[in-house]
Amino acid sequence: MTHPRERRPWTAWQVVIGFGGVSLAVDLVADGARSIAGPLLGELGATALVVGLVTGSAEALGFILRLVSGPIVDRTRRYWNAAIAGYALTAVSIPVLAVTPFLGAIGLTVASALIILERIGKAVRSPAKTVLLAFAANAVGRGRGFGVHKLLDQIGAFSGPLLVAAVIAATGMLWPAFAVLLVPALLAMALLLWMRSRVPDPSGFETVETAPAEARDAANVEAAHESVEHSGRRIPVTFLLFSASTALTALGLVGFGVLSFHLTDAAIVPLAGVPLIFALGMLAAAIAAVVTGRLYDRWGGAVLLVVPLLASGVPLLVLSDGIGGALVGIILWGAAIGIQDSTVKALVADLVPPARRGTAYGVFAVFQGVGTLAGAALAGALYPNAIAIAAVTVPLQVVALVLLIVVVRRQRREPVGPPASFTAA
To answer: Between 20 and 30 A from 106 (CA), which of 136, 288, 374, 417?
Structure first.
């Protein structure tokens, strides 16, 4: 007999929105901190090169270590455990940055370590979270599902810098801005634990949608899942070409650590204005993620051809000496970041068989990490010569565009995931 108050199972959209809520709260914390990481390190004695190396290394580790965490979650299928552990690292490390200005000579070292630790947390959680999200997004349209998730994610990424800016404006100091981020960090962990209790296995969404018709009855569900699990063991060449293209694009985006350092070093905006510039970039990212997510479900990977074009204009604009150039540049930067963090992942899911997606997201992240570190180090080493930086990055965006065109053509000839014309009901 069914208990009258038995809880109904969550729908795919509820899972997508739930993960969006977690990402909203966590990105409020992480991106609130990222928006002032450069000024914090500068205040603690770092040069532009040190800022580039620290923030670039942090971002790179956040990507590269997914090559380890991705295969682990593929093998163990303990997606929730990895997601919770990774989010917890962010929830702890960011608020502790509040104490670094009081640590004297070791403050810079501790702050650098905490910034890197936070990105390691992202590496731990990201493949697991993305696989969980991909299961649910499959039932609503991957482009749309990832796009909506990214919209909520970017609301947090937009709100965090605004909160940080308000605290800095009120206190005139950086450390209280980090301390206040403890509140959304705790809320994110509470929501994540609640989600796990309600949706212990989101893979059911994909099994229902992708299993053959004759295997959808209860007696054959397990056999269908086994078929999906072993449907592909090789990483496709098309996926590797796409990863290389993304690495080149990431290199051209420079990294906000150097950008934020430049905004204060060149006195373009006051300290409290730096998070507002970052918030503008996150707003552009949210809009770009939703728009390209919907277009991806109709046009496939062709919509991503815009990313190298956006990246080609970033260095000259964001490292200019005027506020106008910086604002336009940060919009281009944010739009490219938003597409890379949402719609790009939908294409990865469609290029790789389900049983290899955790590994694929890890491999893909290595390419992103190497590109991100190279871009930040290049910008830090050549700073403040924006023309020299652009002379290296712009030709690489041409190469990225050519590779992406090849990927789009190969995907149309050799599809792995849902067809580009798939539209959710």
So the answer is: 374
